[in-house]
Amino acid sequence: MKYSYIKPRNKSAITPEIKLMLTFFSITLFMLFSTYAFLLYKDYSFTNELVHITNKKNRLETNIADMKVQILFIKKENVLAQKIQTKNAVLKDSITNLFDLVPERITLSEAKLDEKSLLLKGITPNKDVYNFMLQAPLRSIFHRTYSSFYPAGNGWLSFVSTNYTDDEKTVSQKEIEVEN
Amino acid sequence: MKLLESLYNKVFINIVVHHESSNVYAEVCSKKGVINSYEELFDTKHLNEKMLSFINSLCKESPFYYISILDNSSYQGAVPTCSKNKLAFYNDMSDCEYKCYQSNWTYYTSKNDLYEIERSYEKIGIDLIYSPFTVLAKFFEDKIDTYMAMYVLIQDEHISLGVFKESQLLYAEHIYFDNDLENEELIETDTTIDLDLEDEGIDLEDVSVIDDIDSLDDFGDIEDLDAIDDIDEFSSGEDVEEELNQGLMEEKVSETAPDDFNEEYQIFTKIQKSINTFYKSSKYESAFVESMYIADSVGLSSDLKKYFEEEMFLTVYIRQIRLGAEIADLAKAEVGL
Hints:
Oligomer: heterodimer
Helix content of chain B: 40-55%
Shape of chain B: globular
Largest sheet of chain A: 4 strands, antiparallel
Radius of gyration of chain B: 22 Å
Radius of gyration of chain A: 49 Å
Mean pLDDT of chain A: 89
Number of domains of chain A: 2
Number of strands of chain A: 4
Shape of chain A: rod-shaped
Low-confidence stretches of chain B: 186-236, 253-258
Largest sheet of chain B: 5 strands, mixed
Order of helices and strands of chain A: HEEHEEH
Distance between the termini of chain B: 16 Å
Strand content of chain B: 25-35%
Low-confidence stretches of chain A: none
């Protein structure tokens, strides 16, 4: 039954107050869901990062173990290098000392230096020069010294000097035997 | 949205504009019925601050509020057809808004007046505008179907009347009258008569009998008075139920002040004139009005009934009508509550 000249205006249950309330709740819900979504994303991101970091950590641990092995090897090499360097230095000093030992009047033609022996070949004007100026220092260095001479063409003497250093134990035993 | 709507009560605010006041009647309704009702009379014909504040306070009760108003346009009426081709035969509808009532008859009003009403109440907004003819037809719904009679709605400044025969409108008229102006005119006329009496007295020779005969002609073309016997309702068609209601009402009406005399006589003359127009006009289907149902919204005295009964030999029944409540019922039906 519609008897009115005009149609009633559209009525809505959503009044301005309810609109305001709905807006407020919508914003609040949006913020809550946004926060929840953000936290979910962060959680997912952190989980991924955790897996990534764990893998990285494992990889690093493996690398560290490898590096430790390498360091050990390098240390050993270093020690060896130092030993070699020391030996070389000793050898260099020995050679220097050896050549310092040789007087100007004696001429060496061959020198062979081993770990515990020294072979010298050369020419000397006479035996005395050799005995006093070369053999004496050699004797003080080596435990045993053997020399042999044979004449050279120009009136000089060629000599072969063989010198040995004994082990400390052998030396000690010999000394004990001598004392007895 | 319908679910939300069902949670809310509905508020029906109904405005009836009187001569110098406005009556605002409101009902707060749930699906079960009327929860609360309010009524307030404001000493203004227009929307003032007090009325606005009262209506706004009612509107705040629910977002589903409907503001209805009774059309008080002077240029309104009803015609006994729903056919658009025939409307122009009764009235020029070019500037009118009209609606068909139950496919039987059409009520109309001026478009300009509708815009004016909407403009006057734009602060609150008007949802429904009702014609007094629909109010009248709904109010006498139980009688219109069965009794051939004249049905009249009397307001402060308006009379809406219609002659119905088995729900079909035969004739209708909306009469606007300015109480103050009419009273003044009546007083002036009375004064003139008094002066005549004082100066010259009554000369029976001067009284024109022809005039009286002419006035009898106003009762229409009753060619054969014997035919009156054919009208069944004339002798036995009295409405017993309405008679009983009438008896109760007359007790109250008898206390009405004598000042209403002029006003009620005016109403009588206006209605009498309208009945004469109905009888005379060839536009309308002819029928003899022998009873009258009056919806009284102003508190008439028994004088009006007496005028009709004594001078026009009509059987008159007067019912009190609360226009606000009637409009509220129409609005409820319109909204579907």
